Amino acid sequence: MSNCQLYLLTPPQLNPEKFKPLLVEALEAGPIAAVQLRLKNVTDLEICQAIEILKPVVQERDIAFILNDRPDLAKKFECDGVHIGMEDMPIQQTRQIVGDHLQLGVSCYDSKDLAMQAGESGADYIAYGAFFPSPTKNTEIRTPVELLKWWSELMELPVVAIGGITSENCKPLVKAGADFLAVINAVWGHTEGPAQGIKEMLKSINEAEQE
What we know:
Blueprint: E1 5-9, H1 16-28, E2 34-37, H2 44-59, E3 64-68, H3 71-76, E4 81-84, H4 91-98, E5 103-109, H5 112-120, E6 125-128, H6 145-154, E7 159-161, H7 171-176, E8 180-183, H8 185-188, H9 194-210
Parallel strand pairs: 1-2, 1-8, 2-3, 3-4, 4-5, 5-6, 6-7, 7-8
């Protein structure tokens, strides 16, 4: 089994200056593979300001800085990658914008077909979910764990599990072969702070890999 890693998403709304020390706290708490800036219902100016403030914090720790939805800004600000969903522009068009050097992730929800199309179109990883109810994104999709297992056994393309994932419910996803667990509220909503959220997630991942 490949070692599962944490893929940290930002809250959908944030003040980048106030959020910066919380991000530092999280990144210092343990190994994290990537941070995705995922802001919703904000202006381009707010996205750009958040990138300029938060990207150095992530990249100086050799962690990938991924931008959600906006390949144009990902390329302009030299992010490490971009993540797109089904409602966004086609994968091939996104790849043309960001070039060959940026990572390209694609949300595939609960669809085998979408995932295989994404892989054939040049995605660097796919994301499946939601696996559980999520406080940050309303969706009726409930991806079965079996789909994650099917993908990880047949495909080499890395897969991210997303959607309501916590330290209490993540073990079946790790055992099913998730390469990355995408977490939001389990970290930023933790009552004892983001560092404790990271530590508990990593502890559960390690336990699942040892079982």
